[in-house]
Amino acid sequence: MMPKRSNCPISNVLDLVGDKWSLLILRDLTFFGKCTYSELQTSDEKMATNILSNRLERLELDGLISKEPDKRDKRRKVYRLTQAGLDMMPIMLEMMIWSSTYEPVTNTHPEVVERAKNDRENLIKDLLAMMKDREV
To answer: How many angstroms separate the CA atoms of 27 and 65, rounded?
Structure first.
């Protein structure tokens, strides 16, 4: 874990996920159902393999994700959000809302933004249920 720069709560979050890539990994695990290294490599942002490896390791050390062997193929690792990672979901939803307001040309589905604004609790429940379904 990185040493804290200050006791500011915003600085604390930035120490964990304030780089260019960490939130994108959390996004892919949360919203796109990606859970393996090779799936995470297919993101539109084309993250370099060394960066992906480094960020996955940091997110695991910081307690936002966990890594375990795939039940179907023990050679492959599966990444999952920890409770701390799951608790980033409202922050990411707020970022989506903000982005859709100030940069409306995004690939976010308008119904997701609408639910994030008006039915957040049920949207989060649905997202958590989808993640749980993927674990089976």
So the answer is: 12
CA–CA gap between residue 82 and residue 84 (Å, rounded): 5
Q: What is the pTM of this model?
A: 0.88
DSSP helix/strand/coil, 14 = helix
CA dihedral 85, 91, 96, 100 (to 10 degrees): -170
Cβ count within 10 A of residue 47:
20
Phi, psi of 65 (to 5 degrees): -135, 160
- Looking from the CA of 45 toward its CB, the CA atoms found within 13 Å total 15
> Average per-residue pLDDT in the chain?
91
User: Which helix (DSSP H) or strand (DSSP E) does residue 46 occupy?
Assistant: none
List, in order, residues 6 or more apart from 117 with CB less than 8 Å away: 97
Residue pair 37/59 in contact (Cβ under 8 Å)? The answer is no
